[in-house]
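REVIEWER CHECKLIST
Item 1: Sequence provided? yes
Item 2: Single chain? yes
Item 3: Sequence as submitted:
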Amino acid sequence: MLYTALRVLARCWPALLAWFLAGWAVRALIIHGAGYLLNISEDIGLLLLPVAILALLASYVGMFLSIRRELPHLGRADDVGPGEAPPTRARQWSDTLLAAILPFFLLYVAWNLIRDDVIDLYFSSTTQDNFFDEEVSDGSTFVTSIILVVVAFVGRWLLGRFSARLPRWTTAIATYFEAVWVLVALLIVRDLLAPVPHWLATRRMFAWAVDAWAAIRADFAWLGTLGDAVGWTIAQFGTLVALPLAWLAFASIIYFGVMPRSSRPGPASMRAASERWERMPVWMRRLGTAVGSGFLDRWRPVALAARLIWRSGPVALGTYLLAFAVLTAGGEWLRFLIYRLLGPHDLSWWFGASDGVEWAIDTVITVLQVALVAAAFDHALRSDAAEELLDDAGDAVSAAAAPAEAPRSS
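Item 4: Structure as written out by the authors:
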């Protein structure tokens, strides 16, 4: 695994660097334009925020795909076999981008990576003049957000259902709708869940539990220390285990997009289930397809990625997690070293230099992490059991890209 990562870095670092810089530049331009629009209407400005995140997503997809030729096990797995059809490069790109939106945005919001985008957006708005005399809106209300989610989801659903009859360029609109409804829905859920702990702690029906726990901590000080240690361990688990596994799942979905599409009949169990489904009333089939297939298809690549990671084995997973942790810690040490070498300066100097330092550190660490994650995915494909999971990988990504497409059978 580590040898593959080093070989990827040695041979493909220019491509990795170019893709990262392209995504960073496009994101910066979009944030700048959204900051200008934010002075006119906050709702319009925030509608460009998903596009900025999509620029980063597209750059990551490009980074992972640019090193695909250096992954030996992946090269063997995506060879076209009997009963399979290779997707075109345009199909690979569009399907992979659409299928990766949900897990990437979930990762982006769960680890609060969107915080930097929001800060940059509002900071950009303060540095640009408002050439209009209109008052700035107060921001998106909860009802407006719900309406936005519904409109974007319905638009995405319609584009997916009639994708076979629409021009290929409508994929860009479908990508934007997917990004909007996923991001706004995740932000709504986060905002709704944020006050729940405080609300529970202030309810009278839970007051006895809060008071009892406070009394226990006062009588037994070691319990408070133990609770703090458990909380710290859980927080570290998210950084050291959950985050690298999420990136590995994200890379798996991207590489699933290059797998050949199956044109052979499915397993007997799947055919039997399909036959039973066809015997259901037409209205029930249409309702079930409209309501359930979109959500299920979006999670199929994630489920396949989780199964592939689970079958990697404890040694391979442990090596990957340790290497990812070393890179994460190395980024902090690199930041500490650079700031110590630069020495003390005036505050005005740091306003101009700190952004460049952070950008350089993020560039180095991101390139190293992408190479490591790709090598870990390639290592997971070495077993025979992994080949069984890859038979329908391309089909899963294709279905996630057009989750609501109408069934062709009557």
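Item 5: Key structural point noted by reviewer: The chain has one domain: 2-142+239-401.
Item 6: Recommendation: ____
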